[in-house]
Design brief:
This is tRNA (guanine-N(7)-)-methyltransferase. Belongs to the class I-like SAM-binding methyltransferase superfamily. TrmB family. Pathway: tRNA modification; N(7)-methylguanine-tRNA biosynthesis. Catalyzes the formation of N(7)-methylguanine at position 46 (m7G46) in tRNA. Helix 1 crosses helix 4 and helix 3 packs parallel to helix 4. The radius of gyration is 17 Å and the shape is globular. The longest helix is centred in the first third of the chain and has 14 residues. Strand 5, helix 6 and strand 6 form a beta-alpha-beta unit. The protein is α/β, with parallel strands linked by helices. It has a single domain, classed as 3-Layer(aba) Sandwich (Rossmann fold).
């Protein structure tokens, strides 16, 4: 993936503190060819600006946004299991984007599109406002060290930005296997006037059946690690 020229992309939103580090971004020649071929089908470009979901998917539907889908197996499974809904994934890790597109093509999934860019810029410049029915953030980097806590993506400003793309009654669904981060998420979200906790004030939500268990999560369960789901509804 080429670096973006921030000067050329004004007035795109500039971000000073990133919540992610792009690791292992190199792809083999074969992966790159598959990426480019599948991108023509599934890819959405930051530079194209604001999109219209009806135009992108060719229909009116509930649209679910997921940020940080990793290698994409969970998102592909959700899209395959809910063909009546449409999904947009946002991920900065090119091999993960390539894998998701490959899975979608192999499984004949048509209700899925993807950005390979920073979610903050995509949300600010590309996604329609007040339209999406759900926004998903599953197992984001918890940035364990206290000095790095400011890099956690779940912050008051981010919660407001998510609210901007959600319709009234839409859901912001988070999940983490790191209890201190779950507590941080709860603290941030309980202060937001734009949301209401779907499980009740100060309560975590049971894992919905439709959220697939990732291999990472299954391994954690075997080791006795907890997982915390939080679902907040936009008022």
């Amino acid at each position: 993936m080429q670096e973006h020229d921030t000067e050329a992309q004004e007035p795109f939103h500039k971000r000073t503190i990133r919540s992610f580090v792009v690791r292992g971004g190199r792809m083999t020649e074969g992966q790159q060819k598959n990426y480019e071929a599948n991108w023509a089908i599934y890819g959405l470009n930051l530079a194209d600006g604001r999109i219209d979901y009806t135009t992108v998917f060719g229909r009116e539907s509930d649209v679910i946004i997921e940020v940080g889908f990793g290698m994409g197996s969970s998102l592909a499974e959700m899209a395959k299991n809910a063909p009546e809904k449409d999904f947009i994934g946002i991920e900065v890790h090119p091999p993960g984007v390539a894998k998701l597109m490959m899975l979608a093509k192999e499984q004949g999934i048509t209700n899925l599109r993807v950005y390979c860019d920073d979610a903050i810029e995509v949300m600010a410049n590309c996604l329609p406002q007040n339209v999406a029915s759900a926004f998903q953030l599953f197992f984001p980097d918890p940035w364990h060290k206290k000095k790095h806590n400011k890099r956690r993506i779940v912050q008051p400003l981010f919660a407001e930005q998510v609210a901007n793309v959600l319709r009234d009654g839409g859901h912001f669904h988070m999940a983490t296997d790191w209890q201190p981060y779950a507590e941080h998420m709860m603290e941030v979200m309980e202060e937001q006037v734009l949301y209401e906790n779907a499980a009740g004030k100060g309560l975590y939500h049971p894992r919905p059946e439709w959220r697939p268990l990732t291999k990472f999560e299954q391994r954690g369960e075997r080791l006795g690690h907890g997982v915390w789901d939080l679902i907040y509804t936009k008022k």
